[in-house]
Write a structure and sequence with these properties.
Structural class: mainly alpha
Helix content: 55-70%
Strand content: under 5%
Radius of gyration: 12 Å
Oligomer: single chain
Order of helices and strands: HHHH
Distance between the termini: 28 Å
Number of domains: 1
Shape: globular
Length: about 80
């Protein structure tokens, strides 16, 4: 998708891919997708509240509680809501 100019990824597709990674139990891919989502500065591709919530949910599912709390506090500080 990233290389197809006719169908670039957007926030909704990133959020869907994050959820798929959680369901497939693929922590590394989930982390890579979230990192990519954060690196995109485009309004249509940037992380939103759903992205952060899905990522935090995934971290909890993968028992990465300290990381989930760190991301939660980061989210609270940037006031993305």
């Amino acid at each position: 998708m990233k290389n197809d100019p006719n169908a670039p990824p957007n926030t909704v597709t990133y959020n869907s891919m994050l959820e798929c990674c959680i369901q497939c139990q693929n922590y590394e891919k989930m982390k890579a997708i979230f990192t990519e989502c954060l690196e995109n500065k485009s309004q249509k591709q940037s992380a939103d509240l759903v992205s952060y919530s899905t990522y935090i949910k995934g971290l909890c599912k993968f028992l990465k509680i300290k990381e989930a709390l760190r991301i939660y506090n980061e989210l609270r500080d940037i006031k993305i809501y």
